[in-house]
């Protein structure tokens, strides 16, 4: 067990966990930030996507000890009231069915749009291809990414 | 207008005042992507008055509607309260929606499955809404000393025109809650619906996009421990022993023990499919620590002998279930299934004299189709929270069928059902998998053993390898044609491991004079369960692929050919047990033909059609493929649907889009195989799921304009997709695809997938 100081959603948080613990479980079990989801544990589904200094990463493959001073953003820290343009676009298109994968989808979309504010359809498809939606809401996800890009 | 006797829904009107208070999780229905101004925010009332099990109204006019059915993504949590709200005659903006817990005394059918939520909820929910409205009107009549028949309502207000008296529902709620429940109520005319038929956003939308805890996997209470399970690595294997000392001293580990979900003399119900009734549980302080112990635990397994158990089947008949011994292989499954296709099956329906017609046929077309086992792969793996202590249990988890697991919990825990509360979590997908809720029993047993609240979570690997799969199937179709190329007889023989997929009285039965349907099944210890449109999801693919090929052999347009058959079934049906409406069936084919401009496709587009009726709804689909860089891409799918009245059109469209994507994914990629009882895929690195780039570029969903009572949508969009894809792939590549999944065969043709 070791102590780690993490900068999460603009706040400093201290946790005492095994150094190999993936960020995913630190967020979920130790910090009550359960918006970041467990889906596969092998970085194959995207449900656990968070931002490290604005870059989308798979928190299930990120040992807490590897994080130094990077700023971590989770779905809970994306906006105060769910009014980030990507969240608003998600609501406008009423994207979710079960909803489980959507925070990972949104985190991937936000980081992608920061890099590429005016993406083409194939670029969106490529950027969002790592996030599985078992309910198959892909068309709405793509439409919401486009709406967010235009807002 | 129709009059409904309220007695059909009597238990909904039991007044349970203890529940009228607080402790609720609220959903704000008006959150549609815009930030509300303070004055739009509906304030919480000081007091709630319960009018029936579904409805309570605050003194300030706020309305809470309880959504009775578990929510797994089909949006019943929005659509079912919409039905209540319309008959109650309130403004949707003033509605809070709350997930009802499992209360069989208060609600009729808390089951999500079989696409039945809206269909079976339609009249009870309308009646509950109309009854509450009538009680509010009666309260106003009593207060104002006027006749109730002169009172009108609208958007949550009550009005008496001649005296010009007006009141909000909130003002009359306290009196209304004390009045007798009317014996009969008038339901609205369809033309008077204000909410039904309009698109309303998901009531949990804002919570989902902000990552609020909605799922049981997110649940946490003080003192809660974390747990996971170790189940046998193969079908046909059971626990022999485990070495607790191998992990007991590991960091954060509290306890290791085995749990058994069935007691020896327990009589199982239809949904009591637990693949591994005994498994090892590990309990600790955090998920990660438990997962480390899970990897390190030393367990010995042994071959399971054949076993049997007493059960009551779906129809209430008592029987004995048998689980065969052995470590099964997919190669053996295929060989056995091929053998069964050549043997006589059980005759399920025979019209005319099909054997004689086949003997005299000028031409016979025979094709065999197959599909593999599939895992449900819900994005949220099996998990459950349980707090069992002092002879009481609270179980909060993802379940489609709480009623079916209650008895299993009772026998496993030794606690009477009065002391077990099942609370319904939003599910991260279901697709049939969570009709089998033994994860709840496992969590409850673990909590009972450690005498603390516990959250038990399966890893993805546990989830994918724990059975309750879609079965593997095979179907052989034969058509007899005379010298004029006219269809004279039709024969289907289909089976699977361990069930036949045939619904013998469905189309094309009823459309052909000489018809034979036979079924067969092969026993297995690989457990199976409902998977989005059980059986239909395969037999539709085989039947609709065969009809496509048959139409080609008969030199007919595939839609025109189906319509000819349906015309025969409509005007002069063969037999009496046909369980479809040929006119509605034809209606969706005609609609999809029109909307897809079937007769004038775009250049370079290869299209296929398919149609199916199941779960009370009719769906026809046209699927367009374009070849891009040697890769078949699904460009567009058109769906035409007849599900009666559409309650929430945009949500219904979303359901259609999702099911079509799901069907394309499973048709291209879905497959689970076995070697010595071991599933060959354990996670999404090997189990290929459809992803964004493989989804169709566009989907159009068209609803038949109908005044029929609504039927379900979760399943009916799904079965036709497989054949629509296969038939369009044929047009694109010149090859017919008989065996799912299609991607490996396409790759063999040097196409990219």
UniProtKB/TrEMBL annotation, chain A:
Q: Which Gene3D superfamilies match?
A: 3.10.20.30, [2Fe-2S]-binding domain
**Residue span, 2Fe-2S ferredoxin-type domain:** 2-78
User: What does the record give under GO molecular function?
Assistant: 2 iron, 2 sulfur cluster binding; metal ion binding; oxidoreductase activity
Q: Which UniProt keywords apply?
A: 2Fe-2S, Iron, Iron-sulfur, Metal-binding, Oxidoreductase
Per its UniProt record, what Pfam families does this chain match?
A: Fer2, Fer2_2
- Does this entry carry the keyword Iron-sulfur? yes
Q: Which InterPro entries match?
A: 2Fe-2S-bd, 2Fe-2S-bd_dom_sf, 2Fe-2S_ferredoxin-like_sf, 2Fe-2S_ferredoxin-type, 2Fe2S_fd_BS, Beta-grasp_dom_sf, Diverse_Oxidoreductases
What is the recorded name of this protein? (2Fe-2S)-binding protein
Automatic annotation (TrEMBL), chain B:
Q: Which domain of life is it from?
A: Bacteria
Under PROSITE patterns, the record lists:
PROKAR_LIPOPROTEIN, TAT
Q: Which residues form a coiled coil?
A: none
InterPro entries (UniProt xref): Ald_Oxase/Xan_DH_a/b, Ald_Oxase/Xan_DH_a/b_sf, AldOxase/xan_DH_MoCoBD1, AldOxase/xan_DH_MoCoBD2, AldOxase/xan_DH_Mopterin-bd_sf, N-heterocyclic_Hydroxylase, OxRdtase_Mopterin-bd_su_IorB, TAT_signal
Tell me which UniProt keywords the record has, alphabetically: Membrane, Transmembrane, Transmembrane helix
SMART domains tied to this protein:
Ald_Xan_dh_C (SM01008)
Single Gene Ontology MF annotation? oxidoreductase activity
> Is-annotated flag, keyword Membrane?
yes
Gene3D superfamilies from the entry? Aldehyde oxidase/xanthine dehydrogenase, a/b hammerhead, Aldehyde oxidase/xanthine dehydrogenase, molybdopterin binding domain
KW Transmembrane helix (keyword) present? yes
One Pfam family assigned to this protein is MoCoBD_2
Which sequence ranges are marked TM in the entry?
12-32
Q: Which residues form the Aldehyde oxidase/xanthine dehydrogenase a/b hammerhead domain?
A: 210-305
Instruction: Cite the NCBIfam families for this sequence.
Output: TAT_signal_seq
The protein's name in its UniProt record: Isoquinoline 1-oxidoreductase
State the organism of origin: Rhodonellum psychrophilum GCM71 = DSM 17998
